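Quick one, probably user error.
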């Protein structure tokens, strides 16, 4: 193939990619994302983005070809390099993702997956024209953070890898798939010539991707996985994969305590604990209900473990003298254990005053002796969520519902629903 013919084919490929982005923008808007990547400063309530953190950088939307230049200009004006960056994106173009990733690496950025909910857009969709005007006006946007159902899919995963600190909440998603190159060629090109050009282009893209992944300090195994996932599909990285590939290596990632405005409101917290085998994680969830002004009910739900048959006690402790004992036997729903108990007023106040809570698991061995294993969880968001929940508490004279009705009427574990991600180019 002559150099002129190669150049014509290359130009045709570029034209197709531009056309593909127009289609991707339509899909992004349909699924609740800005049609192009936007970045802005957000401010929330105290501890909104962690202990002592109430300001963050929000990055959301479809990754377009001009995204890297906009992100670079914005970050140059942000002097606080420790301010966390929260991503929520279905994906988009690969090339600017690599550039953005290297910008984040040079900044030693802290990156997380989360949705920024602007307070001024409470009555809208967060991506309508009025809301996007608020977010892109250049000022600081009053907002709240949510990790549940937040995502960084497709090409977003590449820019996320650039951060030196990466945190994926247990209820957020990072999903990957392979890329695809399609050409609409006009001219005297044979099918063999087009096929050869596509093959060379894809081979180059594969080499660039594996080199990029390795340069970010991520296991090459991630690239091996990406190559097995069809362009039309998505693979949500499991917690074990996030850990094994080196993307998020925390042994106990956890969410903040957040208020869920269901038919019966409650406060939710989710965590994933690394198991002793070193290769798996166990998902756990806490749900706190307000039964009346003086008492609450705490549910603890987790995946059953191999040792479940020997477990005879479970408790939550707030200090040395205040605890919630869940009893001896949990209810079983499929592969999950559901523990539930009343939280008296004194124990609730101790929980609110503590910075950390301790979960204790008592297991009886063959000799009848009980071995107690403990782990800590934080109380981030518990106080603010409890204050909001109390507004819906019934009067003290209202009889509390039966313990079984609390969990039988509710889904056991969180469901993470992801909108279809825009395929990477």
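Nope, works fine. Designed sequence:
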């Amino acid at each position: 193939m002559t150099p002129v013919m190669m150049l014509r084919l290359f130009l045709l490929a570029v034209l197709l990619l531009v056309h593909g982005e127009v289609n991707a923008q339509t899909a992004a808007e349909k699924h609740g994302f800005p049609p192009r990547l936007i970045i802005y400063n957000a401010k929330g309530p105290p501890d909104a983005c962690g202990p002592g953190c109430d300001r963050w950088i929000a990055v959301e939307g479809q990754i377009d070809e001009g995204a890297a230049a906009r992100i670079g200009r914005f970050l140059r004006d942000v002097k606080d390099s420790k301010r966390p960056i929260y991503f929520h994106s279905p994906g988009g173009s690969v090339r600017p993702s690599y550039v953005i990733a290297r910008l984040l690496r040079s900044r030693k950025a802290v990156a997380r997956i989360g949705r920024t909910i602007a307070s001024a857009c409470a009555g809208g969709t967060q991506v309508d024209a009025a809301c996007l005007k608020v977010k892109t006006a250049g000022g600081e946007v009053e907002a709240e953070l949510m990790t549940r159902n937040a995502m960084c899919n497709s090409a977003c995963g590449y820019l996320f890898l650039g951060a030196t600190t990466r945190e994926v909440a247990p209820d957020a998603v990072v999903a990957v798939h392979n890329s695809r190159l399609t050409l609409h060629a006009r001219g005297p090109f044979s099918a063999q010539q087009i096929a050869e050009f596509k093959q060379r282009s894809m081979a180059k893209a594969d080499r660039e991707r594996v080199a990029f992944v390795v340069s970010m300090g991520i296991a090459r195994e991630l690239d091996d996985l990406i190559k097995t996932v069809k362009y039309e599909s998505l693979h949500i990285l499991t917690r074990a994969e996030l850990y094994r590939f080196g993307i998020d290596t925390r042994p106990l990632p956890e969410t903040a305590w957040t208020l869920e405005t269901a038919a019966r409101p409650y406060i939710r917290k989710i965590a994933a604990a690394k198991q002793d085998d070193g290769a798996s994680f166990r998902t756990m969830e806490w749900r706190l209900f307000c039964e009346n002004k003086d008492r609450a009910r705490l549910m603890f739900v987790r995946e059953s473990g191999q040792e479940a048959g020997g477990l005879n006690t479970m408790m939550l402790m707030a200090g040395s003298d205040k605890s919630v004992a869940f009893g001896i036997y949990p209810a079983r729903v499929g592969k999950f254990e559901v523990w539930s108990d009343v939280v008296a007023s004194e124990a609730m106040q101790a929980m609110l005053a503590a910075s950390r809570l301790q979960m204790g698991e008592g297991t009886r061995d063959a000799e009848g002796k009980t071995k107690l294993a403990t782990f800590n969880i934080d109380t981030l968001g518990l106080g603010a969520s409890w204050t909001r929940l109390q507004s819906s508490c019934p009067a003290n004279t209202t009889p509390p519902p039966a313990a079984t009705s609390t969990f039988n009427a509710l889904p056991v574990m969180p469901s993470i629903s992801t909108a279809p991600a825009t395929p990477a180019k």
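The radius of gyration is 25 Å.
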